[in-house]
């Protein structure tokens, strides 16, 4: 009898924030010292045990940008196979309480018009997020 070994892949949920302010969207450039160095992303990070997606996002944005957010709208999840693990990006459209951002992890941030988002060098998974966000705006 043939035995088939099925290895279970690690699945990681990563809520991320599409932060809107005055018609612009915040993009963050990953640190040169992290995985996917200098790629652009929507700020956020991995969900910890017993955390909801929303709780994780609020915590991560406070840790990374030192600001509070309001979560307005969940966008479709998108997944990316990174070989040894699968990343599930869970994007949320958000507003900021203040724009007094203090960066603790990112190299830099940029505020871009929605149509300019595709001009940056994003992590692969974010290309779907951008597409879904632009679609959401077009039917709003
Ligand atoms: N926050 C965030 N992470 C993203 C995006 N796109 C994407 O592929 N990721 C991946 O999701 C993971 C999020 O991890 P993290 O932000 O909590 O921490 P990290 O970079 O230290 O993680 P890692 O070292 O495990 O890769 C990273 O591997 C990151 O590359 C995105 O738009 N936002």
UniProtKB/TrEMBL annotation:
Keywords: DNA damage, DNA repair, DNA replication, Hydrolase, Magnesium, Metal-binding, Mutator protein. The keyword DNA damage applies. Residues 9-134 form the Nudix hydrolase domain. GO terms for molecular function: hydrolase activity. It catalyses: 8-oxo-dGTP + H2O = 8-oxo-dGMP + diphosphate + H(+); 8-oxo-GTP + H2O = 8-oxo-GMP + diphosphate + H(+). The keyword Cell membrane does not apply. CDD domains: NUDIX_MutT_NudA_like. Its cofactor is Mg(2+). Belongs to the Nudix hydrolase family. This is 8-oxo-dGTP diphosphatase. The lineage of its organism: Bacteria, Pseudomonadati, Bacteroidota, Cytophagia, Cytophagales.
């Amino acid at each position: 009898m043939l035995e088939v070994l099925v290895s279970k892949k690690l699945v990681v949920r990563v809520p991320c924030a599409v932060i809107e302010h005055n018609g612009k969207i915040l993009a963050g450039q990953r640190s040169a010292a992290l995985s996917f160095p200098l790629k652009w992303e929507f700020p956020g990070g991995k969900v910890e045990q017993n955390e909801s997606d929303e709780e994780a996002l609020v915590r991560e944005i406070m840790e990374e940008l030192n600001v509070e957010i309001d979560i307005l709208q969940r966008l479709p999840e998108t997944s990316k196979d990174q070989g040894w693990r699968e990343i599930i990006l869970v994007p949320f459209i958000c507003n900021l309480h203040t724009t007094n951002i203090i960066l603790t992890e990112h190299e830099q941030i940029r505020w871009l018009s929605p149509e300019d988002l595709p001009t940056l060098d994003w992590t692969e998974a974010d290309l779907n997020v951008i597409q879904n966000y632009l679609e959401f705006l077009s039917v709003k």
